[in-house]
C-alpha cells in the first residue's frame, strides 16, 4: 500500500504552473541556505539580520512580488502564497518581514500613491535597498482602528477638503503607533492618521524631525522580528507625502486584506514544519521497546495533524485561485486566516506533546513556531474579529458592538 506524502498528501502542488513551482523551489532553497541553520539563534537572541537578508530577498524578487511594474515581479497570487508558505516554514518572523514590506507598505503606495511616490519608493523597496513599515495599530486602538487618535492637521490648525488636500501646504502629524513590524529599522513608514476629511495615509521618511521610534523588547513570540513603537510629535510633512488615492478606513483595511492572504498561506508552512518534526521524531524515538509512532495515541495525533494540514493546504490553494480570478472577498480572507491559523496552532501544540521535553528547546522548531503562531492568531485581526466577520457574512448581522 503506497504511503501518503506527508508534505502534500493530495498532491496539490501539481495544480501550480511551472513558474509557481519554480518560485516554490527557489524560496525553499533560499530558506535552506540562508535561514534554517540560523533562525533558532536569532529567535533566542531576539534579533533579525534585516540588512543582510533584505538585499538577498530583493534579488529573488519576493518583495511586492504580486505587484506589477516599478521593479516588482508581477507574480500570481498562487506564487505569492507558496512563497509565503516556504518562508514561514522557517519562521513567522521571516514571512512577516516580507509580507509587511510587500502588502502593507508597497501595496498602498502602488494602489493609492502618486506617480512620484511610486517612482521614489517602489523600486527601492522591491530591491531591498529600503525597508518600510505600516503604522495603523495604536496603544489604545487595536481591533477598532476607526477610533485612532493619531491626527493630521493642515499647517496653522486648519484642514482642507480632500479635493484640495494635495494642492499645497504642509501637514502636521501627532500620535503614537504600537506593535509595528520593522518600525525601528524602516526607511519609510506608511502612517494612517485622522483628518477632518477622514483617515488618510502619509509617507513618513526616516529622519523626519519629530518622528522617532523605540524598539519593543522582552517578547516571548516573534523574537526573530523587529517590533517597535512609532512616535510622531509635530511631524511636518509636505502635501506630497499624502497618499492621494484613498480616504477612509477602506485604505488601511484593503492593505490588511492583502497581508492576511499572505498569512493564511504562510501558516501552512509553519504547520508543515511542526508536523514533519513530530513525524520524524516519533519514528526514531523509542519507549517501551518500540518507536512512538507505533502507539495508537501517537498515530491519532499524527493523523489529526495530517488532516488539519490537508484542510489548510486546500483552503490556501482555493483562495489563491479566487484571488487570481479577481473573486477574492475580504470575508474569504477572514475565513482563511481564522481556519488556517487555528489549525496551524493546533498542529504545533500536538507536535510539541509528541516531542515531550525535547519539544521545548530551540533544537527543534516546534515550540518556536507555536509561540510565533500565538502572535499570528491575534495580529492583523484577532481570531474574535475574523469570527465576527464570518458571522456577519453568513447571518447579515454585524455583532462588533
UniProtKB/TrEMBL annotation:
Residues 248-394 form the Acyl-CoA dehydrogenase/oxidase C-terminal domain. It holds the Pfam family Acyl-CoA_dh_M. This is Glutaryl-CoA dehydrogenase. Keywords: FAD, Flavoprotein, Oxidoreductase, Transit peptide. Its EC number is 1.3.8.6. It comes from Streptomyces caelestis. It comes from the Bacteria. The keyword Oxidoreductase applies. Signal peptide: none annotated. Belongs to the acyl-CoA dehydrogenase family. It is an enzyme of class 1 (oxidoreductase).
Amino acid at each position: 500500500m503506497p504511503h501518503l506524502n506527508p508534505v502534500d498528501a493530495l498532491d496539490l502542488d501539481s495544480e501550480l504552473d511551472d513558474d509557481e513551482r519554480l518560485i516554490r523551489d527557489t524560496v525553499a532553497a533560499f530558506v535552506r541556505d540562508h535561514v534554517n541553520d540560523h533562525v533558532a539563534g536569532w529567535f533566542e537572541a531576539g534579533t533579525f539580520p534585516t540588512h543582510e537578508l533584505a538585499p538577498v530577498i530583493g534579488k529573488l524578487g519576493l518583495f511586492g512580488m504580486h505587484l506589477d511594474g516599478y521593479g516588482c515581479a508581477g507574480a500570481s497570487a498562487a506564487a505569492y502564497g507558496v512563497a509565503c508558505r516556504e518562508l514561514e516554514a522557517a519562521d513567522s518572523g521571516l514571512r512577516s518581514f516580507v509580507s509587511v514590506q510587500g502588502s502593507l507598505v508597497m501595496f498602498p503606495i502602488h494602489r493609492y500613491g502618486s506617480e512620484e511616490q511610486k517612482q521614489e519608493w517602489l523600486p527601492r523597496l522591491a530591491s531591498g535597498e529600503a525597508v518600510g513599515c505600516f503604522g495603523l495599530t495604536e496603544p489604545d486602538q487595536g481591533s477598532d482602528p476607526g477610533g485612532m487618535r493619531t491626527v493630521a492637521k493642515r499647517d496653522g490648525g486648519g484642514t482642507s477638503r480632500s479635493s484640495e488636500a494635495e494642492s499645497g501646504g504642509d501637514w502636521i502629524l501627532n500620535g503614537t503607533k504600537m506593535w509595528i513590524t520593522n518600525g525601528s529599522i524602516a526607511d519609510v513608514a506608511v502612517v494612517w492618521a485622522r483628518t477632518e476629511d477622514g483617515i488618510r495615509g502619509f509617507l513618513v521618511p526616516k529622519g523626519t524631525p519629530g518622528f522617532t521610534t523605540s524598539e519593543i523588547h522582552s517578547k516571548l513570540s516573534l523574537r526573530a522580528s523587529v517590533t517597535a513603537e512609532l512616535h510622531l510629535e509635530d511631524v511636518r510633512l509636505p502635501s506630497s507625502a499624502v497618499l492621494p488615492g484613498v480616504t477612509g478606513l477602506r485604505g488601511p483595511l484593503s492593505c490588511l486584506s492583502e497581508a492576511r492572504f499572505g498569512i493564511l498561506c504562510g501558516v501552512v508552512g509553519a504547520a508543515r514544519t511542526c508536523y514533519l518534526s513530530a513525524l520524524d521524531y516519533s519514528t526514531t524515538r523509542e519507549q517501551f521497546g518500540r518507536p512512538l509512532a507505533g502507539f495508537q495515541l501517537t498515530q491519532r495525533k499524527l493523523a489529526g495533524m495530517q488532516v488539519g494540514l490537508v484542510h489548510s493546504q486546500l483552503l490556501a490553494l482555493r483562495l489563491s485561485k479566487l484571488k487570481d480570478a479577481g473573486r477574492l472577498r475580504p470575508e474569504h480572507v477572514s475565513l482563511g486566516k481564522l481556519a488556517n491559523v487555528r489549525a496551524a496552532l493546533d498542529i504545533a501544540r500536538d507536535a510539541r506533546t509528541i516531542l515531550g521535553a525535547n519539544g521545548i528547546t530551540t533544537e527543534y522548531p516546534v515550540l518556536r513556531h507555536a509561540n510565533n503562531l500565538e502572535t499570528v492568531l491575534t495580529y492583523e485581526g484577532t481570531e474574535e474579529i475574523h469570527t465576527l466577520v464570518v458571522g456577519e457574512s453568513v447571518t447579515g448581522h454585524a455583532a462588533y458592538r
